[in-house]
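Two folds, back to back.
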Amino acid sequence: MKRIRRMNTDKGLTGETGLTETVIGAAYEVSNTLGCGFLEKVYENALAIELRLKGHRVEQQKPIEVLYRGEMVGLYQADLVIDDSVIVELKATRALETIHRAQCMNYLRAAHLSTGLLINFGLSRIEVQRVQSFVH
């Protein structure tokens, strides 16, 4: 029997698969309620509320230091960090681009986390990409 591959699953990824599924479900709830056309900050606030209602610890605009040879050389701000485990980078644009994925990957490396979600609310149907980094 031919196996059907589902979209938007965490199969093959390590890390916080149950948590990413919860975040994606919450993002769909926000998208279904608000629709598209708002600024990223509106979606960030709404998603933070939705995840807190589900019992998760959510940090907004969390500063992440970038270190080089033990010295801070920069500071990023992650849109959301959920349960100290998953970084969520939000966009409200026509399409996700390679630079958005690279940005999320850099946040993961700097934060020493392995799992991130890139979520675009700029379309009538949200776009979700999982980003995986291998922490040393």
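---
second:
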Amino acid sequence: MQFDPTKPVKTRIGRKARIICTDFKRNEPIVALIEVYQDGGEIMDSYFIDGTHPYKSDDWDLINIKEDK
């Protein structure tokens, strides 16, 4: 399945994520907020257009959430 940044996403290990832009002016144009704290707090990170993280393990890659039909 090809990654689509216009659809809902999460990290590969299931952390909640939301894309806030896809036109960040650098090599990683996707900017996403990832929920990492117990209280729902988020961190901001950037990603390649295919949803892969440039530096962290594959666990941090963005994947699409399966939508109910």
